[in-house]
Amino acid sequence: MRFIHTADLHLGKRVYEFSLIRDQEAVLAAILDLCLREGAQALILAGDIYDKSVPAVEAILLLESFLLDLSEAGITVLMVAGNHDSGERLSFGGSFMKSHKIHIAGVYEGQVEAVPLEDEEGPVTFHLLPFIRPSDVRRFFPEASIQSVSDAVETVLSSIDGRRQESLAVGVGTFAGGHRR
Fold first, then answer.
1. CA 181, 130, 100, 31 torsion: positive or negative?
2. Is the pLDDT of residue 181 over 60?
3. Which listed residue, of 13, 22, 27, 95, carries a Cα 20 to 30 Å from 181's Cα?
4. What angle do CA 60, 66, 67 make, to 5 degrees?
5. C-alpha to C-alpha distances, 152 to 46, 82, 110, nearest whole angstrom
6. Are the C-beta atoms of residues 69 and 32 closer than 8 Å to each other?
7. Please, which residues bridge with residue 143 across strands?
8. Which of 178, 76, 175 lies closest to 131 in space, CA to CA?
């Protein structure tokens, strides 16, 4: 399966109070162009979509425009919240977005979303895991010893249908990988 993986867009970032939004607009246009040129079926946005947990309106509008362009191009979006994002804000409208092939893992609620896709070689399942802290995971796994982010990720990945060995952790937020059956 052809997919493009990126992370750390930090939309809305300002440097010395200078907005980078026009530069970010150009980067997103280049990502869309790359997806189209390479025939990508999916785009993975692995964390830190926004630069702040409460993003500027211009950043929100830029992401909305980008997601609309991807949707119109028929490209599935697999997005996970990073440590700079507010998972709740990022996943607003998630049910509606799913109907447009935009899958967002904003907040860990005890399960990892599985997104099955298929290409000419067969099915591929992507598992979306947003950035997690030990406290996000402990309540769902009270018997586990979870002291670090690594422990939390290990615990959650091992709970994915027993397929820990077939998944891979990629990205900042955490993209819990994909596997073929």
1. negative
2. no
3. 95
4. 90
5. 17, 15, 11
6. yes
7. none
8. 175
